[in-house]
Backbone:
């Protein structure tokens, strides 16, 4: 399974993604959850998982650090057997979980990824997906994820040698897909206005309309596979 491109920069042997944060967080959380339910969430594994962190949102960083403390989940196995598969309830009821963390959108998303949301009567989180595999293949999943031939991969693109951060103007679509000619045109046009235009209000209006009201015109004539770029 390919997660496409993750763009970012290297500094002091650390990779900072410019695009791909959600995919990387989901992939990290998958490793954490499989480690937990397979009994592999030990100090060595957590030392590796701790290398993933958030720079600007302190609450997200502290939450991830607490997930990487094996002692915080010593009683999870007993809790799960006694009260069912409710990993989110277990987490939010721990003394190390601050109530204000519930307002952090990153933590909210991570908890939803773990516990899932109900869609048409079905729950789509990790907990539901792997609930039938705990006694069967969960150890195989862990070995597969941590092997040299892991089934989930992505392309990492460093921007260090492409352009300086001050001059960087890049407009990428979701999931690191290759930009279409029309998307490149929009980026070039806005870049041209930034360098040559004097009317800041006009530049802002054009930039906003390109992705909103003007795009709606094309959606009325979208293709059968719901694409508008060719049009």
Residues:
């Amino acid at each position: 399974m390919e997660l496409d491109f993750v763009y970012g920069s290297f500094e002091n042997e650390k990779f900072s993604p410019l695009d791909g944060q959600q995919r990387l967080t989901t992939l990290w959380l998958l490793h954490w959850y499989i480690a937990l339910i397979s009994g592999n969430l030990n100090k060595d594994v957590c030392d590796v998982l701790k290398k993933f962190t958030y720079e600007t949102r302190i609450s997200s960083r502290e939450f991830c650090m607490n997930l990487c403390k094996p002692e915080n989940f010593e009683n999870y196995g007993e809790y799960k057997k006694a009260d069912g598969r409710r990993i989110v309830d277990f987490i939010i009821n721990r003394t190390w979980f601050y109530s204000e963390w519930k307002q952090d959108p990153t933590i909210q998303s991570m908890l939803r990824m773990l516990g899932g949301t109900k869609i048409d009567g079905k729950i789509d989180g990790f907990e539901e997906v792997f609930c039938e595999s705990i006694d069967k293949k969960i150890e195989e999943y862990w070995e597969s994820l941590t092997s040299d031939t892991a089934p989930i991969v992505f392309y990492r693109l460093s921007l260090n040698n492409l352009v300086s951060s001050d001059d960087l103007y890049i407009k990428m679509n979701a999931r690191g897909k290759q930009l279409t000619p029309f998307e490149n045109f929009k980026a070039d046009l806005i870049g041209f206005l930034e360098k040559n235009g004097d009317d800041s209000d006009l530049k802002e209006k054009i930039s906003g309309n390109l992705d909103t009201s003007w795009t709606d015109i094309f959606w009325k004539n979208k293709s059968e596979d719901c694409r508008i770029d060719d049009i």
Q: What stands out?
A: The chain has eleven helices and five strands.
